[in-house]
Specification:
10-stranded mixed sheet, alpha/beta, 300 residues, single chain
Length: 300
């Protein structure tokens, strides 16, 4: 059960997208919100202004999220809570410290945008937080689909790319938790991308590849069965091509509420190693939010 989400605001136009999306999720999932803004030591004279801004945003968010909850049925929580906090330091370090000390279940922040002024390099901060955080990180693209924001897609689809490893499956329990808390009909789509093109094979090699793909389809169905056993619809897709590009193209043709992926991040800011596919997808994705879970943390 997710109870508290940390929402990172940097005072930019991108933060407004995060704010709106956090409001909708808080209202629908019944999650309390903590708004955090980090002022660097060089900007400490801006503290009074930033604190006033965060307090104002927290009050607004609490009221608006409660309105979303009431419109959705109003029985998720008695009252959604939100508070704003400003701290002085270096963003990634302060964010991770705040997560540790305040029982945070989820972290939400924006990805790079093609425009907009940012007070910190959110791409660098996001990378560090994703790798080192012990909790899932929810990335919000600057061009988030309005249908996702308004929960107006024809299907509430949650897409999970898998590669056959237990590490790639580490995100599934977290995704199931969100689906249960959402309380509405959710369909899971499990993807596997084979990056080897058939034209490169001899006849014998092609037969071996087809056997390998059949084995992978059976694996996907086995994982899908575990999701179906939890009461959710699940289907599988096997794609062929470059993994990151194939995932992005699939989302363009099949808009989803959420893309959930495991990363190979390791605890600590000095060891920043993304799974290469997850990293590529983060840089390419534009309209679909992502839930990222460090597989290294999940299996500890």
């Amino acid at each position: 059960m997710y109870k508290k989400m940390l929402v990172l605001l940097d005072g930019s136009e991108l933060a407004e997208v995060v704010f709106k999306y956090a409001r909708e999720l808080s209202g629908r999932l019944g999650i309390d919100l903590e708004l955090l803004h980090v002022v660097t030591p060089q900007e400490e004279d801006l503290l009074p202004m930033r604190r006033a801004y965060m307090e104002r945003m927290a009050e607004r968010l609490c009221s608006e999220a409660q309105g979303v909850s009431d419109a959705a049925g109003g029985d998720l929580k008695t009252c959604i809570q939100a508070r704003g906090k400003v701290v002085v330091g270096y963003p990634a370090e302060e964010i991770l410290k705040y997560v540790e000390e305040n029982d945070i279940d989820l972290v939400m922040l924006s990805t790079h945008g093609r425009s907009g002024v940012k007070t910190w390099d959110i791409g660098s901060v996001a990378s560090k937080v994703i790798h080192a955080a012990k909790v899932p990180v929810w990335l919000v693209p600057a061009e988030l689909r309005e249908e996702v924001m308004a929960d107006a897609l024809p299907k509430r689809t949650l897409v999970i790319p898998l590669n056959g490893s237990k590490l790639s499956e580490a995100v599934i329990p977290y995704a199931l938790g969100i689906a249960r808390q959402r309380g509405a009909e959710v369909e899971f789509v499990l993807l596997y991308v084979d990056e080897v093109q058939d034209i490169l094979f001899t006849r014998d090699a092609l037969e071996a590849k087809e056997a390998e793909r059949a084995k992978m389809k059976a694996y996907l169905e086995q994982v899908a069965d575990t999701i179906r056993a939890e009461g959710f619809a699940a289907r599988t897709e096997l794609l062929i091509g470059d993994p990151a590009t194939s995932i992005i193209e699939y989302l363009k043709d099949n808009p989803a509420q959420l893309l959930a992926m495991a990363t190979r991040g390791r605890r600590g800011l000095s060891r920043l190693v993304f799974g290469s596919v997850a990293e590529e997808v983060i840089h390419m994705i534009k309209k679909t939010p992502m839930l990222l879970v460090s597989a290294a943390s999940a299996v500890e």
